[in-house]
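User: Last request for today: this protein with 3-hydroxybutanoyl-coenzyme A, please.
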Amino acid sequence: MAEVRSIGVVGLGAMGAGIAQVAIEAGYDVVGREVSADLCDVAAARIEHFLGRKVEKGQLEAADRDAAVGRLRTTTALDDLAGCDLVIEAIVEELAAKQELFAALEDVCGPDTVLASNTSALSVTEIAAATHAPERVIGMHFFNPAPLMPLVEIVRAELSSDEAFETGFTVAERMGKAPVRCHDTPGFVVNRILIPLLNDCIRVLDEARVSPEDLDTAMTKGAGWPMGPCTLVDLVGIDVHVHASEALYEKLREPRMAAPPRLVAMRNAGLLGRKSGRGFYRYGDAPGA
Ligand code: 3HC
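Assistant: Here's the final one, the structure of the complex with 3-hydroxybutanoyl-coenzyme A:
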């Protein structure tokens, strides 16, 4: 198994920026790609903000922060990922967009580069099918917020090679994460359980006529959840959650997977949670909000 030294991250939204942050902190050279220079700057500022907070709180030496920041390069050119040993994709959750990207990455990167998708609910096998060498494609599913959540699901698609699969696992371990190995089934492990559970929570809002604040209090104080379901859906992004629900419902046809109408209406109204400044709650404009 070839050693991974440099990692490409395509898509530097909340997930991609978080993954890039974790990778530079672990000592990898990272090339982060976004579609515009402005979005590159936003992502770099976000990463520097969170690393800066770690320094202020005594969790990271200033020199280590500077070294980590020095390992990050952002670009708008996909060609700049040519030298990467592993590329992690974290773009929009649309199959066609991901397939197009993976086909392009195959042309840009060397034959040994492992190509990983951070998809939460799409089929890694279907993404891999757009390439000529599907054996090099795996899933590396990080959780939101990636710098704080230890789990990474390492997903074996139908044709993934053992080598690519184990490369993903080893890199996640070196990032200090707690990777688990699983197969490419709808929702993998956590979302197969969490998505219907969160949908149940949102349905209870209407059924029990409880407020989002009280539902969150109920689940944090009564079930020990670290954050309430409404806070969590706001963090994940209401559009992301609705999309994941729809993707799982399409595959599994279980009624609990279907997105609750309240969430669909919120998504349609542009109430996307933290990232849009308003979901179940209102948020300020600090990075990460
Ligand atoms: N990126 C980087 N750093 C961040 C961050 C982010 N997005 N958000 C917060 N931080 C940093 C901040 O610097 C913060 O410190 P500061 O406020 O002093 O600046 C620091 O982390 C600690 O933040 P908190 O005090 O909020 O940390 P907590 O100890 O309260 O834990 C938590 C936060 C780990 C997020 C905890 O609340 C939790 O476990 N929540 C549940 C999250 C969860 O379930 N995620 C999974 C979502 S499902 C998913 O991702 C799947 C997808 O496919 C849909």
